Every structure is written in C-alpha cells, then in structure tokens.
Amino acid sequence: MTARSGRQAAQEVMQRAQYVLLDFDGPICDVFSGFPAPEVAAILRKMLKDAGVDLPPDIQEQDDPMEVFRFSAQLGSNLNHATLKTLTALEVEAAATAEPTPGAIELIQRSHATGKAIAVVSNNSEAAVTAFIHTHGLLPTIDLISARVEPDPSLMKPNPHLVRQAIAQLGADVSRSLLIGDSVTDMQASKATGITAVGYANKPGKAKLLEAAGADLLVASIEELL
User: Fold this and answer.
1) Quick check: 200 and 183 in contact, CB under 8 A?
2) In the predicted model, what is the mean pLDDT of residues 25-47?
C-alpha cells in the first residue's frame, strides 16, 4: 500500500487522532546534536574494553550507542547494567544541548490544547526524555513517557512493548492513535500494534525506507502536521 503524503493528508490524519505518540530522537529533537552519538558510542566501547571485553569487529566500528547497548546484553548482567547506567547518564547529558526539531514543541502544545493525549515513546532513556521536556517547559503537556528503563534491549523498538505500554496506560483507542517516528523500527512497532504509522522522512532516501516498513503517512517536516 502506498503511503499518503502532503500537508492536507497530514492534517486530516492529525484531526482524526486523539492519542498522539511521538518518538523522541528525531520527531521531538536531535538528541545528540551537541554531544555526537559516535562520541557516546566510543565511551561505551572504552568502558567495555576496560572491563576486559573483546569487542567483535562490527562493535569496534559501531557509532550507534544503542547498538553497543544491544551488544551488552550478551555480556552478563553486571556489564549489561553498567552499560545501561552509563548510556543513560550520557543521554541525560546530551539532552541538555539537544536541539528541538522545528515545529515539534508547537505540535505538542497545539495537540495538548485541543484535548489530545500526548505520549513520548522512545528507545532513549526515560531520564533523558524527562530532562529534555522539563528544560523546554513541556511537562504540563505530556501525559505519558514510555521509554527505556529496563536493561533488556530486546524490549526496545521494533519490539512493540513500549508502544503497547503507552496505549495501555493511556487507555487509548488504537483506531484513533498514531505514532510519529523517523525510523524503520518506529513503523514496525506501529504496525504491530495496529496504530497509524506516521513516517518523518527527515533525511534523503528515508521516505522509501519508511514506506517499505509500513508507513501510512509520510511527512518531510513536523510542520506539515500542525
């Protein structure tokens, strides 16, 4: 099925929605804009090397801190928890300099003002999400944060766990719910829960990837959803 696109389609989808779920890194902000993700990944890799871990070649070259965290799950409980703790602390630090995505704060505020329930659903830590929304005065507008707290990385998207958790805690009607995300895993988690998948194609070539992953609607900017 071909995904819809364009401002009119985006606004029709938003008008029907009563429950608006947003991924954090991308749709709301660029988490690592001030503290680049490759630097965070390097710190995690060094921590594991210092603990005596022989990193495989793919992890030695891995610039995505989430993938280093996923790898830590096979290293035993102590190292997995240590990686989670370090990653969370680094994400909170990064959140302090994260740049809001153009239109994101206004979208959240307008949605809240019109009576929609707002949830942040993220593979990033709950602590980092909370720090960002507190800094930007969004706490009164966010009804729920469903983000990473567990050391088990298999619970992160594309696993629908975090999305299902948000739907359950909001008491949401899935037919009036949507998730705005910028990754294939966001689209996969949306489709697994039966909610509308809105793909934020913020980089060249991403629209095709998000559509192939099941996006119902594609937008090139968050402003299209206002």
Assistant:
1) no
2) 98
Task: Output the pTM of the full model.
Answer: 0.95
Distances (CA, A) of 91 to 95, 96, 120, 165, 170: 6, 9, 16, 22, 26
For residue 115, count CB atoms less than 10 angstroms from its CB and return exposed for 0-12, middle for 13-18, buried for 19 or more.
exposed
Give yes or no for residue 11 having a pLDDT over 90: yes
Q: Which amino acid is at 100?
A: P
What's the Rg (C-alpha) of the chain?
Answer: 17
SS3 200: strand
115 phi-psi bin (left φ>0, alpha ψ -120 to 50, beta other) = left
Give every CB contact of residue 49 below 8 A, 6+ residues apart in sequence. 55
Provide the pLDDT confidence category of residue 1 given band limits of 50, 70 and 90. low
Give SS3 for 81. helix
Q: Which of 11, 9, 28 is nearest to 142 (CA)?
A: 28
The answer to whether residues 200 and 224 touch, using CB atoms and an 8 Å cutoff, is no
Question: Residue 6: its pLDDT value, please?
Answer: 86
